[in-house]
Amino acid sequence: MTAQEFKNVWETSDHSLRPLSIDRFKGLNLQQTTIDFLTIAGLPANVAPYLSFVRDTSDIYDGINRLTKQYDTLEKEFDKYVTIGVDGSGNLIVLNTEMNDRVEWLDHEDFSPRYMNNSINELGELLIVYRSFVDQIQQENGEDAYLDANFTDTQLETLKQKMEQVDGNALTEDGFWKVEIEMLLENRKEFFSKDQKV
Q1: What pTM, to 2 d.p., does this model score?
Q2: Which of 98, 118, 138 is the last residue of a domain?
Q3: Tens digit of each residue's pLDDT (9 = 90 or more) over 82-91
């Protein structure tokens, strides 16, 4: 999915994106396809599953920056990471410039990397897939369906199949999306066991 295709799909509903200015990329050593994606489309401010992304600012923490600029105590080996967002627990979403801007998920305590997506284009497409899943379960199972983990096995299987079509490693690598699916199942188990006790 190209940056323009992502933008067209994302902005068809009440959701907006935050493209970045070209001057934000000086010295970051990112690939042109990544820069194109972030300048043409950008990423949403906040999106399910509890992700927040950078905005067009020179602020060290709210804008796109090298991880070592945000955390100046880190060793030079962390120079390869460029921060683009965080998850709901404060773990970082970064681009690994030594792996063709692969999207990785860094633990906020020890900065250990885990897989998220092969590219920012795949990340964008998976955000669309996940948003469609949330929209579907809310339409079919009620407004609080996502918060209550109220989804069927069929709905989850459809989500997983679509994820794998976009990024074959999304659910096989021990990383963000695999953990997200496991958490959805755990939340559903907890919610329904609580519901049956009442």
Answers
A1: 0.92
A2: 118
A3: 999 999 999 9
